[in-house]
Amino acid sequence: MDLLYKIFLDPFVQMGAAPDLLLQTLWEGLVGGVLYALIALGFVLIFKASGVFNFAQGIMVVFAGLTLVGLFGVISGLGNVNEHVAAFAALGLTVGVMFVLAVGIERLVLRPLVNQPDIILFMATFGLTYVLIGVGELIFGGEPKVMITGELFLPRGSTDWEVFGGFVSFQHIDLAAAIIASLMVAGLAVFFSKTRIGRALRAVADSHKAALSVGISLEQIWVIVWFASGLVALVTGIMWAARSDVSFALQIIALRALPVLILGGFTSIPGAIVGGLIIGVGEKLGEFYWGPLLGGGIESWLAYFIALVFLLFRPQGLFGEKIIERV
Amino acid sequence: MFYREAGQYKTSYVADQAVFPIRQDRYGIAIILLVAFVAIPFLGSTFLLQAVMIPFLIYSLAAIGLNLLTGYTGLLSLGTGAFMGVGAYACYKLTSVFPEVNILVWIIASGFVAAAIGILFGLPSLRIKGFYLAIATLAAQFFLQWCFVRIPWLVNYNVSNAIEVPQRQLGEIILTGPNSTPLTRYMVVLVIVVVMTWLASNIVHGRIGRMWMAVRDQDIAAELMGIRLLPTKLLAFAVSSFYCGVAGAMLVFLWYGGAEADTFNINQSFFVLFMIIIGGLGSLLGAYFGAALIFGLPILLRYVPAELGLPLHSATVEHLSFLVVGVLIIFFLIVEPHGLARLWQIAKQKLRVWPFPY
Amino acid sequence: MRLKGLLIGAMLGAMAGTPALAPAALAQDGIYVPLFSYRTGPFAGSGIPIANGMSDYLNMLNARDGGIGGVRLIVEECETGYDTKKGVECYESTKSKKPVVTNPYSTGITLQLIPKAAVDKIPVLSMAYGLSASADGERFPWVFNPPATYWDGLSMIMKYIAGKEGGFDKLKGKTIGYIFFDGGYGREPIPLLEQFAKTYGFDTKLYPVPAAEMQNQSAQWLSVRRDRPNYMIMWGWGAMNPTAVREAARTNFPMDRFLGVWWSGGEDDARPAGEGAKGYLTLNFHGVGADYPAIQDIVKHVIGKNSQTPRDKVGENLYNRGVYNSVLIAEAIRTAQQITGKKLVTGEDVRRGLESLTITEARWKEIGLPGFAAPITNVSCTDHNGHHAAYMQQWDGQKWVKVSDWITPMKEQVRPLLEAAAKDYVEKNTGWPKRTEACDKRS
């Protein structure tokens, strides 16, 4: 009875007793969710267009962040360069690096492996992960680095909003992350629905063969999606690293985008976003209100369980296409 | 010239269905076993036994386990590390509660515990498949690892949250613990791995194996043919987890000698998955090839620069070996997406007609 | 197709080739000291400065004095990536070169090596990490973990808190939060913390951080905000530390009530949080900064020549931690040379050296590190730790500043726990060897 009370009533009593904390938890969950959604978005873009389950998305986040900070270090070491100029120059160069990476991946990995089973392509992205770890550590070293938030004009500090006899604290960087992520998603949505390349991309996602037969270049589309998800990785890297550091430990967090993918479906961009928010909020609420019952730290598997339970009812995910199997 | 089956007649179905129908293959296996049982124990250094052969065999067994599930039944799993952990913790609990029973019994018995847990986490496989299932097995990975940290009963309330392998003997021979020699442990591992490989080979060549493969190739068609999907998939989970559990118990008892929860983390799962993909999905031999490549290559790479006299720092070597392993994975996939086992088959085909291919 | 055949051949060749490679560098004319380090992987941030400090000091001894007692040290790093598997591999590959001491630098690896040490006759030096119970020299003759155990660390933190509050009796009714790495390392102090809580009547709140969530601690810190503990104690490592410091600053937790163990006190742990980290406290058992003659010698003899250390990183906290570790090694070797009269000491000799290890204040001065650390005087055959003093340091926004005197641990509280744990360990391991090693008289 006591246990039932603790599971079903106590958390809600707590929520009612301290609504400011509830709001804060929801906010933290949303911010975490935005970041999960960004990583998941990177996965979805690639999966949609090329059917590759890109395991390297996590390390791409780290790699993009490292490149940015590393290039900034090089540029500002050149002499008296304005730090903001240097930061944006580094940002531009990093975008260039991500483009070269996308071309390289398409040429050296995807093209020779075209038409192979999914699991082989999946494995190839594991290989890619190793290569990026090796190259990243070789060039930039393994030390964690501080993200150049100030130089990129990203806000710091926080605003406290007094409410319900308590306060909810909003970090400016989190607000910025939410805004930038929304802008980015909106940009991608426009890109996919209005531009020629975007339409071609959707055609490829529907059917490779049909797209090829109307003269769409698959290679070009692949470069574009890998580049786009490289950009998403860069934004994710900046935002996440602003909260902690750029370090190789970050790649573990990328795994958290996987339950988001289950929830949202592998092929749906809105799914990735809604799924990310659900997972983000769900795990924070779970950890904060129900975690203490189990001694805390349940966040590491809660997201997977939410996704798993969900899957049993809707195996194709929230917005995934209904899988019709033919024998 | 040497590898030719001309003149080898099969006079019964049994002979034709044998696992090694060709005489040269049988000789080959005999030679490999001879090397493993005689040459390596006599000639190998402790480094070879302790740091190369024992882990290689243990990983091969885990890879066979995963291959039964992923390669033969087509169910992708990322929970291997956790299932290995279940085996290790089960073995530790069993031997500390019943120390008088021989440890070898418990190593095998721990496989059954892992199998039970495997069935539990295999249940979603009826509804979901492919990458969705892989992510669902990640739930097993993270949840079980959390249990290893959180349930002090599992480690007998050890303050350091670690399991330490007690000394166990078979008669006068010390099998586990710090006083056991690498040679003894190697022989134990070898016997278990060989026997279990033989069992696995019989399973996959028999009715069960064919059922699994039917499910892998097209589960709806298999169902129409009268194969009940849920029991078949769960059986695959059970057998696979059994193998992984035994491998995990051996990992701790016959190799590490102690472990923390973090030993069975997600990287362990990926590590074994790499092995079967590189080695060849749906091939027992591939499991060995994969384990040799994925486990052996980094070790080898560490010693190459030193041997060549290159003054590289140990960290640089590590970075380079990451790079090289990554490149080689991609390279192998491009050269032969079906794994090293397929390369081996191709090589055998060539050998058959060598030196006159036309 | 030929290529494929070649590859298979190469693989088989590789398998056969390894045994020949490993024991290659056997010939030695010096004392072989392998250093297990991790400059890669998720913990590299903490691992790199330590590895730099460790190898720089030993290389400096080689360059300045020609080694120890006229014998050169053969220093070799082995990269573990903080991965137990690679650590065991490192151990096996270095074993054949007759190391005089092993530095696992990871609790996971230490646990694997503890049972092996007695068999292979190579002492294990796990400096202020590893298995706390291994401080019991009667039961673990081959394992050493000076200068202090985690339990000592916790008792020193409690003493500091009590001092701030005006006595242990003032702790009654207070709440102390404990945020920790969810693994053996972070869980070890919990029994002692709970014992303290019972004795002094304060409440504890536990906030575990799982390994995969090191950089994602907002839920833990929200709980901190809810529970409003009076003090927070942290047992963190690697990427967990800077994230925790940032989150603490974000939740407006008073930083001068946030105290970390010695492994949570890197410059890079506090610096990223900027102004917000000001006031953060950690324990430390050695000095920071490069103003010591010995460290100046490192700059003179090693930096820029035989070192990976950037000049401006010399003297940072974790760098000096590495130096401290190497001082222990060097002094143990020197003591072993004195006891045995041999120049080329072995692992067995160094074990005796470690057991008689004494670094008095005068000796610290002599080796060029005056006042660097508390004198090492309590290591003995029965006590392989010594339970030495540490001090509290505070982050002033730029660097660490010493803010307390040397705090001695509450040995009387720690020792019984420790012996119980050691007894438990030995009982679980039937057939654990009895100590047969003789005890040297202190000279």
Give an overview of the whole structure:
The complex is a heterotrimer of chains A (327), B (358) and C (443). By secondary structure, chain A is mainly α. Chain A has helices spanning 2-8, 10-17, 19-50, 57-76, 83-110, 118-140, 172-194, 196-206, 208-213, 218-243, 250-254, 257-264, 269-290, 299-313; strands spanning 158-163, 166-171. Chain A has 14 helices and two strands, in the order H-H-H-H-H-H-E-E-H-H-H-H-H-H-H-H. In chain A, helix 5 (83-110) packs across helix 10 (218-243). Chain A is globular. The mean pLDDT of chain A is 83. Chain B is mainly alpha-helical and 358 residues long. Chain B has one domain: ABC transporter involved in vitamin B12 uptake, BtuC, CATH 1.10.3470. Chain B has helices spanning 13-16, 23-43, 46-72, 80-97, 103-122, 131-150, 182-205, 207-217, 219-224, 229-256, 266-279, 284-308, 314-335, 340-353; strands at 162-164, 168-170, 173-176, 258-260. In chain B, strand 2 (168-170) and strand 3 form a beta hairpin. In chain B, helix 7 packs antiparallel against helix 10 and helix 11 packs across helix 12. Chain C is built from 15 helices and eleven strands. Chain C has helices at residues 2-21, 44-65, 84-95, 107-120, 150-165, 184-187, 190-200, 218-227, 240-250, 267-270, 293-301, 317-340, 347-355, 361-366, 411-428; strands spanning 31-37, 73-79, 124-125, 143-144, 175-181, 203-209, 231-235, 258-260, 281-284, 391-395, 400-402. Chain C is globular. The chains are: A mainly alpha (327), B mainly alpha (358), C alpha/beta (443). The interface between B and C is large, with 68 and 66 residues.
